[in-house]
Design brief:
Elements lengths: L2 H16 L2 H10 L8 H12 L1 H13 L5 H21 L7 H18 L11 H41 L1 H13 L6 H10 L3 E2 L2 E2 L1 H6 L12 H18 L6 H18 L3 H7 L4 H20 L12 H7 L9 H23 L27 H7 L4 H13 L5 E6 L3 E6 L7 H6 L4 E4 L4 E5 L4 H12 L1 H7 L16 E5 L4 E5 L6 H4 L5 E7 L3 E3 L4 E6 L5 E5 L5 E8 L9 E3 L6 E2 L4 E5 L1 H7 L2 E8 L7 E5 L4 E2 L5 E7 L1
Helix pairs in contact: 1-4, 1-9, 2-3, 4-5, 4-6, 5-6, 5-7, 6-7, 7-8, 8-9, 8-14, 11-12, 11-16, 14-16, 18-20
Length: 646
């Protein structure tokens, strides 16, 4: 991991095992004696909390591995078992708890990422199996290291425990403040890990969350203070933003703020509200963090205890109410915080003319879900196109353009409410256009790492963005030659396009991908390849050859753009099994080898090995086509079609 970007990946990886906690909490509470009194359901929920360190080992290993596959999780589990039980053999007083899983998940990808894609031609002892074996050996080394080091670390942690316990309500206040202050970086999950899953011990479990569900009457210290803020305080801030919005934008602002306020109240997910003012008025956000700390202080001074399985929303409040201590007092406290937030935000927004949602200048529309004005880089035609797409496709398409397309975009990832992107240069990103396209906020962490705050439906936007960023779908989403700036007028003449691979042809409509089968990419044909050699079907300039090497495009002297796409969903292989013999910008001849691919890897790991040959600008009405029906084809020799300019 490198720098802040690596820490963000770690934070996101932690969310994978944490995401199972709502299910665990639900089973735990429904099966409890004071609810439905069904012991086996209660035991099922408790088991997840008991084996949480193992889930951390597997979840972090998956999140930090390059392929994100089950082999990484298995490797993480093996390292965890060897480390967790091995150190006890060195010193029986050692108890690493959740940290054993954390360390196992952190170290596993170091070896796994180096070997997982090696020796892919071997059916059994391939790179993944070698990585698992080497990690098991490395785990012995970790046992020796931590068997010596951990007693000292454990003493330090015990000292921290003692300070936190002695600090009492003050410690809870400091945690609440720090938790909110780390939200902009997404690193609050890292901070939460120790207090929520490693702090304290009760009946064999550790962590404030685990101990709460195990019945520890002292647990809930580092959770209870969030309930008044998430259920009441931030909805009060949302109301202030509605009432301070411009009259002509108030209805629109109300609709947006109602959704994010309900999300905060019900689920405890507050980032959509927080990012609506975080960077517009950072001092106001600091006040918000201070109020979160004050809430932790007050609730603990009053002796209130309540925990959650996911976050401090009404759902967790209702499920865990009878399991808490004086939990009903959170309601009047929350009402007070509602009015405190409302008053502070209303006064500050008016006093300092803060451009919160609904108060933007006319040239900066924050969120409309409809058309985007032309000075944001999107024209009226884009608005017309958006009517035929769902809102996530529209939003992703606009994000893609504002980021700079594949020329700037490198990695697409996401967590609960935000896109986490790695780009070549954040300075090339049009932040204003991203906000205009519907983002709640934009965070440029450094030159390479960008976050776009969406809300709880971020997964759908991320999927749409990945769909567009695939070189094939990017071409489909981009303006066609019919409506885009002309890349060069077609020259008069005819052109012959040959098969790029040996194999058997079939109609494009039989390809199990609507992008191809419905002609979204243009006219073409599919080939079931017999070997892994793929050649240029025509001479011209190699204008597209991404780092994943699963597709390449050629612009011919006539101006045709021919795409050869090897397999379906092969972009997810991230280059595994592909070798390139040319580079973008090269002038290539028909029949020249461009790619060599391992068809066995493609058939095992991708959706299909079908290879599509498509004229991506065939809808530009510049060419006519005479298609052949050859059946079996030979690479570089069998004619697929002949085209001519009109």
């Amino acid at each position: 991991m490198n720098g802040l970007g690596g820490l963000q990946r770690l934070g996101k990886s932690l969310m994978l095992p944490i995401a199972v906690l709502p299910a665990a909490g639900l089973l735990n509470r429904l099966g409890a004696s004071d609810v439905l009194n069904i012991p086996f359901i209660n035991a099922g929920g408790n088991s997840i909390f008991s084996y949480l360190p193992l889930l951390f080992a597997m979840g972090i290993a998956i999140g930090l591995s390059r392929d994100g596959k089950g082999a990484a999780a298995l490797s993480g589990a093996i390292v965890y078992f060897i480390l967790n039980f091995g150190v006890v053999g060195v010193d029986k007083n050692i108890n690493m708890g959740v940290f054993a899983g954390f360390i196992a998940g952190l170290f596993t990808p170091i070896i796994y990422n180096r070997f997982y894609d090696k020796m892919t031609d071997r059916p059994y002892f391939n790179g993944k199996h070698l990585a698992i074996l080497l990690n098991a050996v490395a785990a012995i080394v970790l046992v020796l290291i931590f068997g010596v080091v951990w007693p000292y670390v454990q003493d330090v942690l015990n000292s921290i425990n003692s300070w936190i316990v002695s600090a009492g309500a003050v410690g809870a206040a400091v945690f609440g403040f720090a938790n909110r202050m780390l939200i902009p970086t997404g690193l609050h999950h890292v901070l939460n890990t120790y207090l929520w899953f490693g702090f304290g011990k009760y009946h064999g479990v550790t962590g404030d969350i685990n101990r709460f569900f195990a019945g520890d009457p002292t647990a809930g210290t580092y959770q209870v203070g969030f309930f008044p803020i998430m259920m009441f305080g931030l909805p009060g801030a949302a109301l202030a933003m509605v009432l301070t919005a411009k009259k002509e934008k108030r209805k629109e602002t109300f609709g947006m703020m109602l959704s994010v306020a309900l999300t905060a109240f019900l689920t405890g997910i507050t980032e959509p509200i927080e990012f609506s003012f975080m960077f517009l008025a950072y001092p106001l956000y600091v006040v918000h963090a201070l109020l979160a700390g004050i809430s932790g202080l007050i609730t603990n001074l009053l002796g209130i205890k309540l925990g959650f399985s996911f976050s401090a929303g009404a759902i967790d409040f209702a499920l865990n109410f009878t399991h808490g201590t004086r939990a009903w007092e959170l309601i009047p406290i929350g009402i007070v915080f509602f009015f405190v937030y409302f008053g502070i935000f209303y006064w500050a927004i008016k006093k300092f003319d803060i451009k919160t949602p609904g108060r933007e200048d006319d040239d900066a529309i924050a969120f409309a879900g409809a058309g985007i004005i032309s000075d944001q880089g999107f024209d009226e035609e884009a608005q017309t196109q958006s009517q035929s797409k769902d809102k996530y496709q529209v939003m992703a398409d606009r994000f893609f353009r504002a980021i700079g397309g594949n020329d700037n975009l490198e990695v697409i990832d996401y967590c609960t409410t935000r896109l986490r992107l790695t780009v070549k240069d954040t300075e090339s990103v049009n932040e204003k256009a991203i906000k205009a396209a519907g983002a709640r906020g934009v965070v440029k962490l450094n030159q390479k790492n960008l976050q776009i705050i969406i809300g709880t439906d971020v997964e759908f936007v991320a999927d749409a963005l990945k769909f567009i960023a695939d070189p094939v779908h990017a071409a489909a989403a981009a303006p066609t030659a019919a409506n885009a700036p002309d890349s060069g007028a077609a020259l008069p003449g005819t052109e012959k396009i040959y098969a790029p691979a040996d194999g058997k042809t079939l109609p494009l409509k039989e390809v199990p991908d609507p992008v191809f089968s419905q002609g979204m990419m243009g006219k073409g044909i599919a080939i079931r390849p017999e070997n892994g050699v793929f050649v240029a079907p025509v001479g011209g300039e190699l204008i597209q050859l991404g780092k994943t090497k699963h597709a390449f495009g050629i612009r011919t002297p006539l101006g045709e753009e021919i795409l050869v796409h090897i397999g379906l969903d092969t972009v997810n292989l991230k280059g595994e099994g592909f070798a390139a013999f040319a580079k973008e910008g090269d002038q290539v001849a028909a029949g020249q080898k461009i790619i060599e691919a391992d068809l066995k890897t493609i058939r095992e790991k991708a959706k299909s090995d079908l290879t599509m040959v498509v004229v991506t600008n065939s809808m530009a009405n510049k060419f006519t086509f005479d298609w052949a029906e050859p059946g079996h084809v030979k690479a570089g020799e069998t004619l697929l079609f002949e085209s001519r300019t009109k």
